Amino acid sequence: PMYQAVQVHKGDSLSFAGMFSGSRAYVAFAGGLDIPVIMGSKSTNLKSRVGGYEGRKLGAGDEIAFTAPKTTLPNMHLRKIKPDDFTATEQVLRVVMGPQDDYFTEKGLDTFLSATYAFTNESDRMGCRCEGEVIEHKNGGDIITDGIAFGAIQVPSHGQPIIMMADHQTTGGYTKIASVISVDLPKVAQSRPGYKVKFHKVSIEEAQELYIAQVEEFKALKEKLSKAPEPAAERDAVIQAAVAHEASKYWGSAGTYKVRIDGEEFIVELQEERTGLR
């Protein structure tokens, strides 16, 4: 199941079906993976062949150990959240304008904020190219090379936007008309070629408020999960009541049924007696 913790044991196999939403899947292992830390990260940069597992993609037969494997976690039954929905093929990305938005004509700025663009096949962890109506510059798209931030939207002289992603270059010499705000970057990361997007201007203050709200949401989730677990007897009573409620739907039909409560499966056997079912 997605978006929830799963207890696994030695010898278990984890399998994944095809994509139904978005373009990337992530899995986290409690306790962490035994991979060298390079520049404060365990991630892999494939272009530079640096980091991760030997600087390359994982392949058949690769084995990675755990740094501090955990056999249990508190409140396992609470460790699930509502799945994000990345099924929309057209979405709005909120942006903060600049730093070179003054290099564009009024027509170019209007085009950027009103036209619809589509992600192309030339999209990866370095950047996502979009195509659509040309964004007009005043005097071309070249500038003196300066720094680039995650989410910056470059517009070279051809007038087509490129959204800088996690593996973006550190500097660049093309005009940057705006930057996608932090909370909307996952939408870009999960977009597929052909998906369409429109850009919506927000203020720095709005972007900060949205970011703070997201941080507070994660903080609340962490606090919820770190609380002492419910007493076993109390939780068992709650589960038994829930199972009985679900099983009541099948009263009148003896047999064995699978009942799911908060992500956990229970096998319920209904037997026929003279006084009815139990």
Q: What is the helix tally?
A: 4
Alpha-beta classification: alpha+beta
As a percent range, the share of strand residues is: 15-25%
The gyration radius over C-alpha positions equals 25 Å
Largest sheet: 7 strands, mixed, barrel
Strand segment count: 15
Q: Please tell me what the overall shape is.
A: elongated
> How confident is the prediction overall: mean pLDDT?
87
Distance between the termini: 31 Å
Q: How does this structure look, described?
A:
- The protein is α+β, with helices and mostly antiparallel strands and 278 residues long.
- It is built from 4 helices and 15 strands.
- The strands form 5 sheets. A 7-stranded mixed barrel has the order 3-10-7-8-5-4-11. A two-stranded antiparallel sheet has the order 1-2.
Task: Please render the helix and strand layout as text.
Blueprint: E1 44-45, E2 50-51, E3 90-97, H1 106-114, E4 117-123, E5 127-131, E6 142-147, E7 152-154, E8 162-164, E9 171-174, E10 176-180, H2 185-189, E11 196-201, H3 204-226, H4 232-247, E12 255-261, E13 264-270, E14 272-273, E15 276-277
Parallel strand pairs: 3-11
Antiparallel strand pairs: 1-2, 3-10, 4-5, 4-11, 5-8, 6-9, 7-8, 7-10, 12-13, 14-15
